[in-house]
Design goal:
Radius of gyration: 20 Å
Order of helices and strands: EHHHEEHEHEEEHEEHEHHEHHHEH
Number of helices: 13
Strand order of the largest sheet: 2-3-4-11-5-6-7
Bound molecules: NADPH dihydro-nicotinamide-adenine-dinucleotide phosphate, pyrrole-2-carboxylate
Oligomer: single chain
C-alpha cells in the first residue's frame, strides 16, 4: 500500500485547520489537534485521525460547545483543583488545569484535578504523560457510555472506562499504561467493522447475550470487561470515582443523555497526581532508583514495558514523519472541504 509521509507539524496544521473551519475556537481546536496527532504519531489508530469525524459529528449535533472557554477553580488550600469545561472538549480543560495540579501536588504530596461537563473521546496517555513530565506519578480515569456488560450480566451498563497510570523516569520515557477496562476499546471494534474483519473471540456478546465475533452484532449488543469480574469491578470503580464522586454522569446516564453511541461521550474526568519523593520521605532508598531496579528486572525477564511499542512508533514518526494511506489523506481533504 502506497503511503505519503507528513511531518508531525504538517499533520497538526491540517487537523487544527479542520477544527477551526468547523467553528472550534483556538483553545478547543489546538488541544484536540494535539491529542489526535499524538495518537497518529504513536501508532494508536483507534484514537488518531479516524476520531475527527466523530468529533465533528458531535459539534454538529450541538452536544459539545465548539467555542467553550474552560474555567479553572483553584480551590485554594485544597488538594482538589477543578476545571469546568463549560460543555467543551476535555482536552482544553485538561491543558488549563495541569499546571495547578502539578503545583498543588508538589505542595501537598498528592492532589487531584477534577474536570466536569466535558466531551471526551481521546486516549488518556497524553494526560498521564503531562503529569509524568512534571516528575509526578499519575492516575487518570473517566467513564464513557454504557456499552459493556458487567461480568455475568447480559446488558451494557458500564462504559469502556479507560484507566491510565504513569511513573516518571529520569532522562527516559516514563512507565505508562493506558487501557480500556473492556477487553478492547470500542474504537477497535469500529475499526474491525470498517475493515470487514471478524473480532477475536471473547470480546463481545450480541443483543441476545450470546458470544459473537461479528463487529455489527457486538456494536448492537455489549462488549465484555477485561479479566472477567476483575475488569468489571475496576470499571465500576471508575463509574463511582470519576462519575458519581465528582458529581458528573455515569455511563448509563451518558447514554440516556446522548441517546446514541455515535457521538463523543459527555461526562467528567478524574486525574490524581502523586509525588513519589513526598510519599517515600523518611524511608530508606530513592523511589526513582528503586523503580528502575524493578523495570530492569521486568525487562530482564523477557517481558516488555507497556508503552514501549508506542514510544518506538513516536521515535520513528519524529525522525521519518507520519505515514498516511491515500484513503487517510482523502479523509483529511474531505473533512476540510465539508
Ligand atoms: P491496548 O490493549 O491496545 O493497550 C493497553 C496498554 O497495554 C498500552 O499501554 C500498551 O502499550 C500495553 N500493552 C499492550 N501489549 C502489551 C504487552 N505485550 N506487554 C506490555 N504492555 C502491553 O489498549 P485498549 O485497546 O484497551 O485502549 C486503547 C486506547 O483507547 C487507550 O489509549 C484508552 O485511553 C483509549 N480509550 C478511551 C476511551 C474514552 O472514553 N476516552 C474509552 C476506552 C479506551 P503499547 O501502546 O506500547 O502497546
Ligand atoms: O474506544 O471505547 C472507546 C471510546 C469510547 C469513547 C472514546 N473512545
Amino acid at each position: 500500500m502506497t503511503k505519503t509521509t507528513l511531518t508531525i507539524a504538517d499533520l497538526h496544521g491540517r487537523v487544527e485547520a479542520i477544527f477551526r473551519k468547523a467553528g472550534l475556537n483556538a483553545v478547543q481546536a489546538g488541544a484536540l489537534a494535539r491529542v489526535i496527532v499524538a495518537g497518529e504519531r504513536d501508532a494508536c489508530k483507534s484514537h488518531g485521525i479516524y476520531r475527527i469525524e466523530g468529533a465533528l459529528r458531535t459539534v454538529k449535533s450541538g452536544k459539545v460547545k465548539p467555542d467553550a472557554v474552560p474555567e479553572l477553580d483553584l480551590n485554594e488550600g485544597s488538594a482538589i483543583v477543578k476545571v469546568n469545561a463549560k460543555g467543551g472538549f476535555a482536552n482544553a480543560a485538561f491543558e488549563l488545569g495541569v499546571p495547578a495540579l502539578a503545583e498543588r501536588t508538589r505542595k501537598l504530596g498528592i492532589a487531584a484535578l477534577v474536570i466536569n461537563d466535558c466531551s471526551h473521546f481521546s486516549a488518556l496517555w497524553p494526560e498521564v504523560e503531562a503529569v509524568t513530565n512534571e516528575g509526578l506519578a499519575g492516575l487518570v480515569m473517566c467513564p464513557s457510555y454504557a456499552t459493556v456488560a458487567p461480568a455475568g450480566g447480559n446488558k451494557p451498563l458500564l462504559g469502556t472506562n479507560p484507566f491510565a497510570f504513569g511513573w516518571p523516569r529520569k532522562e527516559i520515557s516514563p512507565y505508562v499504561f493506558d487501557f480500556a477496562t473492556s477487553v478492547a476499546a470500542r474504537g477497535e471494534i469500529e475499526l474491525h467493522r470498517r475493515a470487514g474483519k471478524q473480532l477475536p473471540e471473547g470480546w463481545a456478546i450480541d443483543s441476545d447475550g450470546n458470544p459473537t465475533t461479528d463487529p455489527e452484532a457486538a456494536l448492537a449488543g455489549a462488549m465484555l470487561p477485561f479479566g472477567g469480574h476483575k475488569g468489571s469491578a475496576i470499571g465500576t470503580m471508575i463509574e463511582l470515582l470519576a462519575g458519581i464522586m465528582i458529581g458528573d454522569l455515569t455511563s448509563p446516564e451518558v447514554l440516556d443523555y446522548l441517546g446514541t453511541t455515535t457521538l463523543a461521550p459527555f461526562h467528567g474526568e478524574l486525574i490524581i497526581a502523586m509525588s513519589p519523593q513526598a510519599f517515600a520521605a523518611g524511608r530508606p532508598g530513592d523511589p526513582f532508583a528503586r523503580a528502575e531496579l524493578l523495570f530492569e528486572a521486568i525487562v530482564g525477564s523477557g517481558a516488555r514495558l507497556p508503552s514501549q511499542r508506542r514510544f518506538a512508533a513516536r521515535q520513528k514518526s519524529e525522525t521519518e514523519g507520519v505515514a498516511l494511506t491515500a484513503a487517510e489523506l482523502e479523509l483529511l481533504d474531505r473533512l476540510f472541504e465539508k
